[in-house]
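This section describes the prediction task in plain terms. A model, or a person checking by hand, is given the sequence of a single protein chain and must write out its three-dimensional structure as a string of tokens. No templates, partner chains or ligands are provided. The sample shown here is typical of the held-out split.
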Amino acid sequence: MTTLKMHTPNLVDSNIERLAELFPNCVTEKPKTDEQGKVIRDMNGEVVLERGIDFELLKQELSHSVIDGSQERYRLDWVGKREAIVTANSPIAKTLRPCREESVDFETTGNLFIEGDNLEALKLLQESYLGKVKMIYIDPPYNTGNDFIYNDDFAADTAEFFERSGQVDGDGNRLVANTESNGRFHSDWLSMMYSRLKLARNLLSDDGVIFISIDDTEASNLKKICDEIYGSSNFLAQIIWERAFSPINLKKHFSESHDFIIAYSVDKEKALSYGLERSEEADDRYKNPDNDPRGVWQSDNFSVGPAIENKIYEITTPSGRKIMPPNGRCWLLTQDRFEEFKADKRIWFGEDGNNVPRIKRFLSEVKNSVTPMTIWKYQDVGHSQSASQNLKKLFDGQSFFTYPKPVELISRIVKLYSSKNDIVMDFFAGSSTTAHAVMQLNAEDGGNRQFIMVQIPEATDSKSEAYKAGYPTIAEISKERIRRAGAKIKSDNADKHGINELDTGFRVLKIDTSNMNDIYYRPQDYNQDLLATLENNIKEDRSDEDLLFQFMLDTGVPLSLPIERTELSSKSGGHTIYQVGGNSLIASLDYIDANMVNDIAALNPLKFITSERAIATDSDKTNIKERFKQLSPHTDVRFI
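The expected answer:
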């Protein structure tokens, strides 16, 4: 029988739930009070907590500048947390500029390699990839005292931040050493991670997941900030990866042999795990000693805990032995269900019929995958040494990275939660193991997963092998690794059907200042020469493709869509137009006339873009709009 509520819905609880979907980090626990405002305690004198909203933090989320306020509550706090929120929410005047010469299969590939600060990259992708990424894996700096972390000095209001957004620190660097002598050792690392994880959540789909490698130094803090950003209810697992197999005897107390991989989902109910493939070893455990017509099976424990009263009863074995469940436990099934299973010959008492009962699990009835456990052995997913050796072989015996992640490890992660057409992202790309794993997995299962790698051009040491080999930055090594890995995968699978269609290319995009000239001048600064330069609002060094990608960013067009350059004839000769994703977007950025408008409108593009410099007069702009209204009324016409 359903009990009537006898009251209208609690709108406060409903509002809290709605806010929690938008700002899970603002949901907190607070003492429950009665009508007089007195704190309620339970029978043991403990304060009763209820779910509530941290209004100060919510105000911070809705503010362009740092707000004051302090209140004790259960949460992780550190110096700079509010600035980290401002950093994540503040706009930047940046763009992505394509680099064809460093790309592979630029026009057709669905993969991206973004070179620049990952905070800026995450902001730039907010429109084009909002809710479109299925999986994120990152291997951020572990904050061991020897790492470099990103220096996000954006503790300013929006106007000031926007003004400075095109600049770096005083030394021209975006990376700073974070040593233990730094008074904000943990705080700086937390601030760096918090802003990036907040932005990353926006890119994940409703069924998306994020996996983060970390060690003991910041594992507990990382889990707390992920609880805030993704919600503690969306925690999936804290995996232990056995990265080493031999002890380091120079260690004073313990020789660490593992790292953690912390996993969260956007919505645990919607996230789908595909499990691990069943191994021959696992299937070999199934036998058929009683020649059951349903095929091979293995027996499983029939007692469970804790004890439930209606599942505690006496069982008589075929030999006549009487058995009760162990103390503190009960049988798996009620007595009625047990009799049904027994009649169906699903209970096993051993070959002589005298053993403790066990339930039969048939191989034909189990799922095709195995649920992963949280300890991952190096025999199954590789270790740091094997990863280093394999990367060294890929670079003809040259060693550039000390502790790269094994391709097998990332492949397992990607395989667990991605289907064949999903987008996988890594915004701490490093040596681009994630890209390698995605291409390898696609070759194995015929998938078409796409990757987005982001790597800052961190300088290599001038004395290092990498620098001497011609790789001045980590980003250069990362790109070369993808090129070599892609070629090797195709070579190793040359006899496999469809291998030539495997996408091993990537489109290189570099973060830079806006394509538009700065038009913010004081009235007293204007003169005739300045007015002449303002006739063209586009910077002189920017190409048509630079403008194309900025428009794709601004209008939310995926940056991985195929791009085709086509020549159209006009009164002044042939001119290039760009077709992005077929008719998703067409751009004519150097010239446009009436004949070209007619030809382009005939293609029925969803979006059309041209630049001010391609148009002679304002009347031409009006004519173009009107012509599209007549020939292709659904086309969104824009001018930049």
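For orientation: Residues 185-203 form the longest helix (19 residues).
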